[in-house]
Amino acid sequence: MNKVAVVGLLLGSLFSLNSIADPMSGKKLYQAYCAQCHGMEGDGYGINVEFMEVLPRDHTDTEEMSARTDKDLFKVIKFGGKSIDKSVLMPNWDGNLTDDEIHSLVAHLRVLCCETEGE
Amino acid sequence: MTIKANLLAVIAASVVFMTMGAVNAAPVERVLSDCMACHSVSQPTEMTLDERMARIGPSLFYAGNKYKAEWLASWLQNPTRLYPAGVYYGQHAVVTDDGDIVATTDLLAHPKLNQQQAQEATEVLMTLQAKSDLVADLNPGEIKKVSRHMGSLNFKKFKGCASCHQDSAGEGGVSGPELYTAFERFQLTYLISYMQDPLAWEPKTLMPNLHLKQKDIEKLVGYLKTLSEDSHE
Questions:
Q1: How far away is chain B from the Cα of A68, in angstroms, using its nearest Cα?
Q2: What is the pLDDT of residues A76-101, one digit of tens each?
Q3: For the complex shown, is ipTM > 0.95?
Q4: Do the domain assignments include residue A119?
Q5: Quick check: A96 and B164 CB within 8 A?
Q6: What is the DSSP-derived secondary structure letter of residue A44?
């Protein structure tokens, strides 16, 4: 592969990553699919938690969330809690969400956990 | 749609239902136009997440493949709340210091129909048979009841259904429809097909496809049957 092609491929990848991991579309997806358990503000206290035996992850917990890689987060959203030896109460969303949408959700999780207001 | 607009839609639908009989329109058109205030009665060309999040009533364009006619006619005369947090919970979830709660005062009641209106509406709704291909080849045999104890364990711990659904009044998740009347409410073929592939019915459903095996589905449906029959004993 010549240099021009390599540079083109790299640039293409950059643009592609930028377009698929959109935290704003991730926010809407979060409000639709995740907030019922993880809370409208991501604190782990959604409307469904009253009868749960395992509390959903607090996505605003910077320390906890920093210990998770993007790859882990992608995997647990796509394949569910069982895929990382966590609770079955976290279902697999592979049927509902495309990989691009899951990347956007991961980007939104990074906003929730690790960006303070105003940033 | 705002809560105010939702309320106006339901009031309008209630007024129309109350004056049914006085309106000189064909029954089919009349019923469908009443239901359209809150439900989609024809299959949309495209279902989007925005549309799903704006819904105030479930889709009815495949009602004839979904509901049992007997249940529908009865429920329309005495409607109970099937979605404890509304059809999209986000419209009614309120953040508090003690966690998110459902603003139950915002939830709208379904108009109550008299016997004649309910029968007429049921007859019309049962003609809405989109998605027939999804149930055409299903020939479920007798569903065996599952013990309440084992069924409950499966529902809550092994399959995680209770995260979003109630298996008894007031117990379980609230974002999905209650399931303790599901066996009475839904046609068996719909229940099985929906559990196999919920997205085939509703591409933007908030229900995940859990890739359940046939045996898993039979056990879950068996539990719903147990809940239904126990409630009548």
A1: 23
A2: 999 999 999 999 999 999 999 999 99
A3: no
A4: no
A5: no
A6: S
